């Protein structure tokens, strides 16, 4: 079924827009949405341009992270362990960085989602959950010490390669990579993975439906400014009455780990999450160790490469989410209708 759905999506994304609606205004809106999705897919399929760009697009994003969350040496007031005091000073680098990452489709510490309210389907609610994929495929992988060690080596290789490439550019990158920092990244990621709920609990509405007010979420996770985060991500003037928290215990564990981690570790961790999120969309030698590692996790040849359309369907699904599902459902209905018309004609 998964293979069939992927091929169907490919067909829809590579076909011209089909319009069978009689309402001109709706047809125009539908077409605009579809063309936006198709444009994202086509850009992903343009391998020549992607290869010529190399690591530059990714390095540009990492530099943006540095703007939001500058090295502590470049900003003395942002010294280690000062996340809480920043909330009182009106300066929220962690909040601003997470808001930026959410906007570009990167989940660093939590997954943000918008969905129908399970207990009131006519309402739409904000959902705040533990990471569905913290880095390795599931929390159980972090219990394999040999695998985690290989994962750490991969992180070091990739970050060092990106730093070398960045130093060749005019601006470079300010963060440094060391064995100690890589170990700290892995330790933080491991702690968050082990604190996340089991898969059964994460999918059980009686376990993940925990409505909280923004103020209550703020109390669970004091390192973030929920008012600033929500105002950054939501339409102007909107503030939800409640947020569905998938796992309050995870937010508590996240707060503890953010309190214990150094400023540099948190920064490097967000850089690494960004690299992981874009690994399939960037073609550059610096990312080869991670691609090889991911292939081995999937039981493939380390140097195997999947058909590009599969990568791009997955990328569109991740970045455009529900818009894609709505639009492809509409197009699929039209596709079935056109096939039925063709069969009738042939008869």
Question: What is Rg?
Answer: 22 Å
Basic shape? globular
Give the uncertain stretches in residue-range form: 74-90, 328-347
What letter string, H or E per element, gives the SSE order? Answer: HHHHHHEEHHHHEHHEHHHH
Walk across the major sheet and give the strand order.
1-2-4-3
Number of strands: 4
Distance between the termini: 30 Å
Give me some keywords for this one.
single chain, 347 residues, alpha+beta, four-stranded mixed beta sheet, 16 helices, 4 strands, globular, disordered C terminus
Description:
By secondary structure, the chain is of the alpha+beta class. It has helices at residues 2-14, 24-45, 47-53, 56-68, 83-89, 93-103, 145-167, 179-195, 199-202, 205-208, 214-220, 226-233, 248-260, 263-278, 288-297, 308-346; strands spanning 111-117, 120-129, 211-212, 243-245. Strands 1-2-4-3 form a four-stranded mixed sheet. Helix 2 packs across helix 16 (308-346) and helix 7 (145-167) packs antiparallel against helix 15. The longest helix is centred in the last third of the chain and has 39 residues, at 308-346. It is globular and about 45 Å long. It starts with a helix and ends with a helix. Residues 74-90 and 328-347 have low confidence and may be disordered.
Please write out the topology:
Elements: H1 2-14, H2 24-45, H3 47-53, H4 56-68, H5 83-89, H6 93-103, E1 111-117, E2 120-129, H7 145-167, H8 179-195, H9 199-202, H10 205-208, E3 211-212, H11 214-220, H12 226-233, E4 243-245, H13 248-260, H14 263-278, H15 288-297, H16 308-346
Parallel strand pairs: 2-4
Antiparallel strand pairs: 1-2, 3-4
Helix pairs in contact: 1-16, 2-16, 4-14, 6-12, 7-8, 7-15, 8-13, 8-14
């Amino acid at each position: 079924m998964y293979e069939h759905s992927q091929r169907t999506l490919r067909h829809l994304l590579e076909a011209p827009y089909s319009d069978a609606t009689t309402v001109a205004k709706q047809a125009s809106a539908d077409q605009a949405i579809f063309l936006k999705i198709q444009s994202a897919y086509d850009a992903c399929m343009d391998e020549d341009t992607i290869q010529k760009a190399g690591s530059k697009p990714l390095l540009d994003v990492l530099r943006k992270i540095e703007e939001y969350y500058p090295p502590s040496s470049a900003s003395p007031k942002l010294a280690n362990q000062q996340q809480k005091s920043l909330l009182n000073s009106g300066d929220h680098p962690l909040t601003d960085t997470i808001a930026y990452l959410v906007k570009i489709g990167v989940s660093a510490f939590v997954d943000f989602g918008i969905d129908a309210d399970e207990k009131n389907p006519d309402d739409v609610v904000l959902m705040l959950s533990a990471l569905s994929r913290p880095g390795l495929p599931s929390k159980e992988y972090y219990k394999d010490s040999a695998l985690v060690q290989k994962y750490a080596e991969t992180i070091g290789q990739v970050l060092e390669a990106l730093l070398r490439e960045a130093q060749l550019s005019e601006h470079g990158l300010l963060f440094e990579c060391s064995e100690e920092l890589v170990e700290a990244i892995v330790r933080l990621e491991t702690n968050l993975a082990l604190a996340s709920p089991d898969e059964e609990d994460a999918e059980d509405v009686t376990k993940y439906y925990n409505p909280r007010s923004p103020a209550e979420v703020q109390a669970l996770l004091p390192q973030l400014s929920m008012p600033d985060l929500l105002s950054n991500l939501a339409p102007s003037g909107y503030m939800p009455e409640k947020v569905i928290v998938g796992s309050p215990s995870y937010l508590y564990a996240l707060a503890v780990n953010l309190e214990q981690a150094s400023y540099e570790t948190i920064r490097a961790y967000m850089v690494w999450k960004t690299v992981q999120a874009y690994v399939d969309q960037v073609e550059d030698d610096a990312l080869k160790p991670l691609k090889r590692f991911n292939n081995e996790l999937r039981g493939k040849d380390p140097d195997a490469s999947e058909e590009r359309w599969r990568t791009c369907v997955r990328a569109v699904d991740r970045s455009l989410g529900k818009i894609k599902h709505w639009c492809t459902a509409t197009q699929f209905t039209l596709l079935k209708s056109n096939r039925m018309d063709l069969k009738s004609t042939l008869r």
